[in-house]
Amino acid sequence: MAAERVGLLPSEIRAVVRMAALARSAVSASLVAEVCGRAVDEVAAMLLRAVDVGLMVQTGGAFAFHPPLLAAATAHGLSASERARGHAALLGALERQAADVGELLFHARAAGDLVAAARYAERAVERAVRGGAPAEAVRLLHDLLDDPGLPAGSGPRSSGGSGGWR
């Protein structure tokens, strides 16, 4: 179903919509424009075409895939290297917008930037501990440390206390 709907769009619009699909939630046209290197008005018009074919919905100033499973199916049209580059571009744009640390962590890992992922995991762990969610803190650390691509010396410091990451 998603492939059919995406196929109804011109290739230029497909590329923009697939980039939007990499985000885990609703996106603004300005975020997608920054990631794609296009004008905001142009991207907004492209995302409206995705709304017209039933891939996305527009609520307020944001665009989202509905149902959300359509985002995963749409992003599947990108190669692994295109997805990694897209997540890296999203990470950069979200860093400039001071986005939620959970979003930054997700995109850093998806981009294969495990050094940045370790940095954002530390922040997310600290937030979870401060928020009274130690199980979430343990899950975050476990997920990161289980990643075989974690560079040597990027794990928790052995010097007691909150210590951070190397």
Automatic annotation (TrEMBL):
It comes from the Bacteria. This is Uncharacterized protein. It comes from Actinokineospora soli.
